[in-house]
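mind reviewing this fold:
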Amino acid sequence: MSSISKYTTPKGKQLWRVSVYAGVDPRTGKKKYVGKKGLDSRQKATLVAARLEVAVAEGDLDKPKDKVMTFKEVADEWFADYETTVRESTLVVTSAFFRNHIIPEFGTYRIATITTRDIQNAVKKWAGISQKAYKRWFSFTHLIFKYALERGYIHDDPARFIKLPKAVEDTISDEDKFWSKEEIDAFLQCIDPSTDLEKYVMFRLYCLSGLRRAELLALHFSDCDFKENTISVVRTLSQAEHGRAIIQPPKTRASNRTIPLDKTTMQWLKRWQVTLYQKQMLHGVNSMQGEGIIFPSTKGGYKSLNTPRAWLVKIIKDNHLKPISLHKLRHSYISNMLMSGAPVSAVQKLVGHSDPSLTLRIYSHVNLDEKKKAAAGLAKYLDL
């Protein structure tokens, strides 16, 4: 049932409007009307009324309309929920994934028009950029499509059919994946404590503790027990936006731990504490009170997370040592500890792994000497 009426605007213009009864609103229980105004003739008003009556009769007005959104609009909506569930440092990393890789591929496209082929091409491209990171970029991309499906912005998930490219075979030999005890000793010999005490203490501690870089730079002298010869991991250093340093709890519950160290390393730490105190006296910072950062920046705050890597690269280059990353240097600690006979469970706790399989996975890259010993042991056992 429709109603057509004529009305006059404040400027004196005569127009027509239409009102059509659309039933009862189930939420309020009141009568519901749909209509249109601003029509310049009765003929147009009659045509609009007829169309509205048909739409009401067929229930088209009650059907939800698809919301046309770009991939970036959906990603921004998803991100607003996601940012309340993770640490600030994690948010920074995820933001970079979207800003540098995901949004450039899909951002301006309407999400409902993106096909499986579009995503497959992007994944192939990402795999060529980074064999390690591309799976995470795809994982976040897939989350956006799942979110869009849940919200009704799309009617199917094109990302569910993606085939991840086969990983490129690792051609690096086992022996190149970590440093042996001889290589670690040679590395430390390249640092002169009389001129580079901080570097020597930092890398000695790194090699003999299995600390993560972010844990090492977050250490305070209050974390050191010079009587028991231990250090405690109670915080980690991360970077927020614009490189701002932030302190957070350890990575996992297992990462919160106490690490025993040899007496010599603790003596070097004490020596560095005294030297640092002498340097900081003019700035009013007393590291001898046990509250100071062990490896502070020149301004007394936390060092950049890039500093240890820059120092390591320069020492290796200047002394023509076998290249290794900070992460693989930590792996060296794990491998050498296990080769020294330490139980897997003990090493797992020392390095803060929540799963022993992580520890064993690293140890799978043993050096040639160990392989020879294993082969000789088998021959002896079989008496061949």
Notes: The longest strand covers residues 14-24. The chain has a mean pLDDT of 85. Strands lie at 2-8, 14-24, 31-39, 224-225, 230-233, 236-239, 245-248, 257-260.
